[in-house]
Amino acid sequence: KQKESKNISNQIVELDRKLEEAEKNLEIVEGQLSDLEGKIAITQRELDRATEEAQAQKELLNKRVRIMHQNGSTSYLAVILNATSFSDFISRLDLMRKIINYDVNLLKERKTIRDNIDEKKQQLEYEQQQKEALKSNLSKKKNEVEVIKKEKEKLLDELKIDIKELDKQLDKLEEDSQKIQKLIIQSQSLGDYIGGEMAWPAPGYTEFSDYYGYRIHPITKTKKFHSGVDLKVPSGSSVVAANAGKVILAKYYGGYGNTVIIDHGGKISTLYAHNSKLLVKEGDTVTRGQVIAKSGSTGVSTGPHLHFEVRINGEPKDPLPYITKSKK
User: Fold this and answer.
1) What is the set of domains in the chain, with CATH numbers?
2) What per-residue confidence (pLDDT) applies to 161?
3) Where is the Peptidoglycan hydrolase PcsB coiled-coil domain (predicted)?
């Protein structure tokens, strides 16, 4: 039975690892798609500009044709031969040369602009094809994330049915909580409390799904201690530091999943668990209200939420008196 319990714990850890990897891959593809859409917008603007230039060139060329038509059959040679003097001849020759060069350059520019339009059209078509491929890949990555989420949900649903096994997992969670107490005592600073009221750790989300203290577990019907409060928070929402301090833990920690612990001085620390993504690392100094993680459902968790704890010298205390003043 102990081996089976360890196997389920390992399955939860492995599924969380796969989910984190799948979400990272999804984020990469979303970034690529965003970059490509930016490039497409630039290419479209360049194409519109080139089209406007081509229209202006066309109008200028039409004007030149009309002028030549109005002048009738008078040839360049006739204009030169009608010179009244040698200096007039030189002037007329130079003028003719300029007119011819202007017309030649006008035709060259028109060709350059038309080539540019063709190039931009091909580039736009290629980028649109890339976009469709990325959208298809994005859909695939989203599906991979959902498959892993459902796989974990299925495992946890099975765990609910197997009450004895669920009870063991909850006991393990309590063991992890006691280990955290020792870890905090070893890592906390000797300085005074940073001071000030604590910020609400999940801005915009104020509904609780569980409270601090002993209670009869709704599934196992056994008395269990809950070391913090659970806030109903959708996956991917911002989790913020309740106060300034130093990060003394930022990693996957047993049943707590992706966890952050911040030391605020004065032997006061806060804990944020079951996150989908950690945005800080151990040793970082954070400010009050700084986003430190994205909420999720890693570890022993039956759905997206934020598990929040306040600890004094490593021992969990009721967090409500510390955060309800800043509730928003």
Assistant:
1) 2-159 (1.10.287), 191-326 (2.70.70.10)
2) 58
3) 50-120
